[in-house]
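Sequence decides. Our protein:
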Amino acid sequence: MPLGLLPSFVPFQPHFLFRGGHAQTLAGHLQGRLPGRAPRRPGLRTEKLIIPCDDESGDRLLFYVERYHRSASVPAVVLVHGLEGDAHSGYILILARKLLAAGFHVLRLNMRTCGDGLHIARNAYNAGLTLDLQTILVFARKFLSERVAVVGFSLGANVVLKYFGEDQEERNRQREFLRTPPQKGAIRDRLAETFVAVSPPLDLRSSCHKIDSSTMGIYRMNFIAEMKRSILEKNYTLPFDPEKELPEIRTIFDMDHSFTAPMAGFRTALEYYATASARRYVEKIETPGLVLHAEDDPMISMEGWQNVNWQKVPHIQSVLTREGGHLGWYAKKHPLFRDRRWMDYMVVNYLMEWRDRKGYGPAHPDLRSLSFRVA
């Protein structure tokens, strides 16, 4: 589909050594595993901050802000990680450096209990918990810039899409579970002008079924191991005895049914999937954005994508590639993306086009950032 805000773009062409969804996913993962470093640039101020969640639950969020001095008019970009990721995930740090080179402020969020914020909250993050994003957007609008964009990856992409499409009733359902007062009236401001959602699991049930299939053992085992380890490390009040029940959990569905769903206020995993899946909210989104997905994504079912009527939301640019894997898109080398990360090229260009179309100026632009421009 045409990008609209991007009049032309370089189509994705996979590197000849990394063909197919698994290879593309692995290439992106390995590149992101290279030793990461926080962005450092002249005139850049980096802060590690902790603030209370707006839901009055007593939970707190830890996040990182890279901003330019005396540049309140510069747009800010909030980055939201995926399942068991955090503000220091490789794909987050790599994209942050590119956005800073292009002249944006950047806020790297740890969702509740993630990363080095694991001991400052008692409630778990999940694919439908949008209150963390609301908290961060309030902060970004107040202290960074009134011009804010959001980029979400995988589970974080689901959170982003749900945030822009849900109503106050769903927002209050989350608040009710956390025993905090509901808010009255309709949601009047989504607090961000645009968004990008990368590899979103639009239908959580079918994506869970896919990753629990017999061909996905390596992915599943890694996720389950990470989730078990984090459950034992964090300050959760658990609905079960972890010493007895965690060894019996072998699938994502089991984990969601025993842990994620009850920790999110649902009776079953199926109830959680039905409410939290972004598919049911996409066609209600009024904010312009970009959704990027690959047909061969080994973790995400195509069912969610196919069940969205994208023609109903022409202000959302839906880009589906035949190859690319999950957060992969490791491409043939090109002058516009010398590190082969086509995913980053698309995200940065979309946001630069949004900024330029609105007439927002960059802070301390780096001439090298021009290499991310579309042809």
Summary: Residues 217-233 form the longest helix (17 residues). The chain has one domain: 21-208+282-362.
